[in-house]
Every structure is written in C-alpha cells, then in structure tokens.
Amino acid sequence: MEARLTGAPNVDVMTAIQHLHKAIQAGGVDQGVLELVHLRASQINGCSVCVFSGVASAKKHGETDDRLHGVAAWREMPFFTDAERAALALTEAATRIQDGEPGVSDEIWAEAAAHFEDQQLSAIVLNIALTNFFNRINRTVKEPAGRTW
Q: Looking at the domain covering 31-141, what would its CATH class be?
C-alpha cells in the first residue's frame, strides 16, 4: 500500500494531538490498559498501521506476546484482569457504533466505572476516541504499516 499523503503534517494539528495525549496520560490509567484499548480499537477498525505500532508500543511497556495475541479474542482468553476486560468491553462498544451497534450500554459503563475513577474513565474514553480518529485518518490516506512512533 502506498501512502496518499507524504508531506509534513500540519504543525497546529500535531500540537493539538500532543495536548490530547498529555490529557490521556494525566488521567492516571495504567499504560498497559491504554495500550490494550488502542490495540483493540485498531483491530476492530482494521487499521494496520495502528495495530503494528500499537503492538510495538505495548511491548515497550512490558506486554507479553500471549496477551497481545489474545486481545482479538479477549473474552475467551484467561490473560486479562477484570479491569482490563471492562476497558476492552468499553472500547468495543464505543468503537462498534460504526457497525450500527447500540454503543455503550449502562451495564458496560457500570462495569468500567466499578474499576476506574471518573478521571480515569475520561482518559480511557478520550484514548478510544483518539484511536478511532487515527484509525480513520490512516485508512483514508492509506498510511502503510511498518513504522512506529
């Protein structure tokens, strides 16, 4: 696949994205949870560049191959904590609205809220949204997998 855009990104856009990342990091969520959320949303959206870079980033933060291979089938895998499962369920519900799914149910939200404080939930939701944002951009401009950042 050949990228459709090859020029330098808009500086103002990059600054805004850096501020969003800073807000996510300030939310107090374990980095491993954020990595799993990013990977799962990217898998659902078929964003090869984000799956590739997400796996690399998760490994840098200590994720194991077993857990990373299991993200696509996390419900059937024994490798995830209840909190991680709640974050992954929230990710799927928020991401699959493109498929006509109903979105985040009260049950999914309540389970996530049982494991994360409001500030953490805000960071997770922003991480899901930002991942979906990147997935859509990358799919539109045909950004090829193989680079990490």
A: mainly alpha
